[in-house]
């Protein structure tokens, strides 16, 4: 349980960095959009308008990052045993057909984020992702295939924390 709490705390730090970066970008884009140097000189000069659109997009991105951060802060550090089914909040360990390990942290948000925690690479996936949907409800030693065509891989669930 302590490992999982430390993992969540580390993820919070990672997401906070992403949020702060998005917030800085939003502030910079807003400053550019209202800068007097960007006032249109003729009807073809759209720099201020483009900067305003960018500022709006950056503000939306910062808001989404903040929502992700809040969701992870509220994530419970579940204690999962090797006999439990995979649920949101589980750290899932897989081994592919080439015996290559993969560690996935199933969370409600921030899918695709990859980071190193205690010398181990962890990939965050959500329950709404194709892989997340396939993992939910599975158990240790279950096997499954994922992907299409030449990108198809076989996996075995080697552990759940």
Can you describe this structure?
With 161 residues, the chain is an alpha+beta fold. The protein has two domains: 2-73; 91-160, Chitinase A, domain 3 (Roll), CATH 3.10.50. The protein is built from three helices and six strands, in the order ααββββαββ. It has a six-stranded mixed sheet with strand order 3-4-2-1-6-5. Strand 5 and strand 6 form a beta hairpin. Helix 1 (2-34) packs antiparallel against helix 2 (47-73). The longest helix has 33 residues, at 2-34. The chain is elongated and about 65 Å long. The termini are close together.
Topology:
Elements: H1 2-34, H2 47-73, E1 91-96, E2 101-107, E3 114-117, E4 120-126, H3 130-135, E5 143-146, E6 153-160
Observed structural traits:
elongated; 6 strands; six-stranded mixed beta sheet; single chain; alpha+beta; 2 domains; Chitinase A, domain 3; 161 residues
């Amino acid at each position: 349980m302590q490992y999982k709490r430390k993992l969540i705390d580390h993820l919070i730090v990672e997401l906070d960095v992403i949020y702060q970066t998005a917030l800085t970008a939003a502030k910079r884009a807003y400053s550019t959009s209202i800068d007097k140097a960007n006032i249109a000189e003729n009807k073809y000069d759209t720099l201020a308008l483009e900067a305003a659109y960018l500022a709006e997009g950056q503000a939306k991105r910062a808001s989404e990052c903040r929502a992700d951060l809040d969701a992870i802060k509220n994530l419970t550090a579940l204690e999962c045993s090797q006999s439990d089914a995979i649920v949101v909040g589980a750290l899932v360990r897989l081994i592919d057909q080439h015996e290559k390990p993969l560690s996935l942290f199933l969370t409600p948000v921030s899918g695709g984020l990859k980071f190193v925690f205690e010398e181990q690479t962890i990939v965050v996936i959500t329950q709404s992702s194709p892989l997340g949907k396939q993992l939910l409800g599975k158990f240790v030693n279950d096997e499954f295939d994922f992907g299409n065509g030449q990108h198809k891989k076989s996996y075995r669930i080697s552990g759940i924390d």
